[in-house]
Design a protein that fits this description.
This protein has two domains: about 5-175, Jelly Rolls, CATH 2.60.120; about 180-285, Arc Repressor Mutant, subunit A (Orthogonal Bundle). It has helices at about 10-15, 100-105, 125-145, 150-175, 175-190, 205-210, 215-225, 230-250, 255-260, 265-275, 280-285; strands at about 5, 25-30, 40-45, 50-55, 75-80, 85-90, 95-100, 125. It is built from eleven helices and eight strands.
Length: about 290
């Protein structure tokens, strides 16, 4: 395949890769062992759905973010609508996935930060975690295969799977601590030097995530887990520290200092400063 494939329906997606026809238009649960003739390579596809996948036996693990801290036997990853997915393996993989429409997730109030992770920020599972995840997928598949299956129960299983995955990500953040410490150090380094380049905009979580080649959500979750504060809180603390420095050492007006820090409007600067310090920039400068 030389061009990007885009799929608007789960049925078309399944036909392309080699799965069976879905029972419903907005959701499908697949056990890979049931489909031995899967497409072993794809240079790129996108769809309108979310995928929540648990796989074993993949041979291109670098694409999913495997590191020296991870097991090679099983992992979970997530694909959001309009996200590119590609692969090249030597033999069909094992495991399960759920393809699900954003409509269903919204209707059942299922929303997790990792839905917005990139594919190379996958969750690599311990043996015990793989056993737990596989049990949950078997349960949702058993219900899905029933002629009179209950959609509410299917969605409850999906929510349970995602809740367990969220717990496992916290474990991964702990076991990858040496790797993540480097990311935290680099974030702090870039944040501390941000204003040295005289930027014309406020530092943002997106900016630093891009600099570190991470998705915004993964970067934010990593920072919160390792530092106990959100990336936004840490960035705001740096902005306030820089503001105090400029207020005490410069003869410029409050508005000029606000613009210099990247605030589009002086009132936004004053509001953030007072929120963090309890006083206005003018009061701080004149004390």
């Amino acid at each position: 395949m030389d061009t990007m494939q885009y799929f608007n329906t789960i049925k078309e997606y399944n036909q392309f890769i080699g799965y069976g026809s879905p029972k419903k238009e907005l959701i499908d649960v697949v056990h890979y062992d049931d489909f031995p003739e899967l497409r072993l390579s794809c240079k790129g596809l996108k769809s309108d759905f979310y995928m929540i996948a648990f796989k074993r036996g993949m041979t291109d693990l670098e694409w999913y973010g495997n590191t020296e801290f991870d097991t090679k036997s099983g992992f979970c990853y997530f694909i959001k609508p309009d996200q590119t997915h590609k692969w090249e393996v030597k033999k069909p993989w094992k495991g399960y996935h759920i393809l699900i429409s954003p409509i269903l997730l919204q209707e059942h109030n299922i929303d997790f930060s990792f839905f917005q992770y990139e594919i190379n920020e996958a969750l690599f599972l311990s043996e015990d975690e793989q056993s737990q995840i596989e049990t949950l997928y078997k349960q949702v598949l058993t219900e899905y295969r029933k002629d009179n299956y209950a959609l509410d129960l299917i969605m409850a299983y999906c929510n349970l799977i995602c809740t367990y995955i969220s717990k496992c990500y916290k474990r991964q953040f702990d076991t990858r601590e040496p790797l993540y410490n480097k990311i935290v150090v680099e974030f702090k380094k870039q944040l501390n030097s941000y204003y040295a380049g005289n930027p014309q905009q406020l530092p943002s979580v997106n900016y630093f995530a891009d600099k570190l080649n991470l998705s915004t959500n993964y970067f934010g979750d990593l920072i919160k887990h390792n530092l106990g504060k959100t990336a936004t809180e840490i960035i705001h603390s740096k902005i306030i520290a820089e503001a105090k420095k400029q207020l005490l050492s410069s003869n410029r007006s409050i508005s000029e200092i606000g613009y210099n820090l990247g605030f589009e409007y002086p009132t936004y600067f004053a509001r953030l400063f007072k929120k963090h310090t309890g006083v206005t920039p003018s009061q701080f400068k004149n004390d």
